[in-house]
């Protein structure tokens, strides 16, 4: 369990479910939110340990002329090739987990009551026994939920993708219904945002109350 005085939440969801919006609300309410995607981007920036590992494993063809990571090219590879996606995960997960742990401990040291690790592939990692999903001692794993049909509609509109490309991205993750069965808590974002927002506010209030209880309670 998390250190007394803090609650550690693992936040996840499927692409297009609205997880990022939930994370933004939690941050606005006062939670410390660490996003694994942001950490990945930092590690994969020029000079980062993640970029060096990618070049060693996949070659310099995945760099732009400026020496930055060619994200669209790498994304196309890993979304359509499970083997390549697995190789990338093995390279990046340990780096991200280490950095996430350091940031969580820093928040705890400052006395932050509610700490949220926003990890899109948390449940995938937990099942595979790799990454932050398998290592961090979460008090609860929270899933932001929408149906696959809603995911498809949202991803196509947001990212200007074809139906085929959007489905490829959605189905590179665990099916959303499987994620729903694995999560401790589900925030249903399949309807109006106002309904999801109410759920988030209620959960945050409960987590804050839990964090403020004396350790012996």
Structural account:
The protein has 217 residues and is of the alpha/beta class. It is built from eleven helices and five strands, in the order βαβααααβααβαααβα. A five-stranded parallel sheet has the order 2-3-1-4-5, sandwiched between helices. α2 crosses α5 (82-109), α3 (49-58) packs antiparallel against α5 and α8 packs across α9 (163-170). The protein is globular and about 55 Å long. It starts with 6 loop residues before the first strand and ends in a 5-residue tail after the last helix. The model has no long low-confidence stretch (mean pLDDT 91).
Taking the sheet with the most strands, its summary is: 5 strands, parallel
Structural class: alpha/beta
Shape: globular
Q: Strand-and-helix sequence, N→C?
A: EHEHHHHEHHEHHHEH
**Fraction of residues in β-strands:** 5-15%
Give the integer mean of the pLDDT values: 91
Rg of Cα set: 18 Å
Put simply, the count of helices is 11
The end-to-end distance, rounded to whole angstroms, is 14 Å
What percentage of residues falls in helices of 4 or more residues?
Answer: 55-70%
Order of strands in the sheet with most strands: 2-3-1-4-5
Low-confidence stretches: none
Instruction: Tell me the total number of β-strands.
Output: 5
């Amino acid at each position: 369990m998390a250190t007394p005085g803090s609650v550690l939440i693992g936040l996840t969801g499927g692409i297009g479910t609205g997880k990022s919006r939930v994370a933004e609300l939690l941050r606005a309410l006062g939670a410390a939110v660490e996003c694994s995607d942001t950490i990945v981007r930092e590690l994969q920036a020029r000079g980062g340990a993640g970029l060096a590992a990618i070049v060693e494993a996949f070659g310099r063809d995945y760099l732009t002329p400026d020496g930055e990571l060619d994200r669209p090219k790498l994304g196309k590879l890993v979304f359509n090739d499970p083997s390549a996606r697995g190789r990338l995960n093995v390279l990046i997960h340990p780096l991200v987990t280490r950095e996430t742990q350091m940031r969580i401990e820093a928040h705890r040291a400052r006395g932050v009551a509610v700490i949220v690790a926003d990890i899109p592939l948390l449940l995938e990692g937990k099942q595979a026994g790799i990454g932050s999903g398998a290592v961090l001692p979460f008090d609860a794993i929270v899933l932001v939920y929408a149906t696959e049909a809603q995911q498809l509609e949202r991803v196509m509109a947001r990212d200007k993708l074809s139906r085929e490309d959007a489905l490829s991205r959605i189905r590179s993750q665990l099916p959303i219904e499987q994620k729903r069965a694995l999560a401790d808590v589900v925030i249903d974002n399949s309807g109006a945002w106002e309904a999801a927002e109410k759920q988030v506010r209620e959960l945050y209030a409960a987590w804050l109350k839990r964090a403020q209880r004396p350790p012996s309670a």
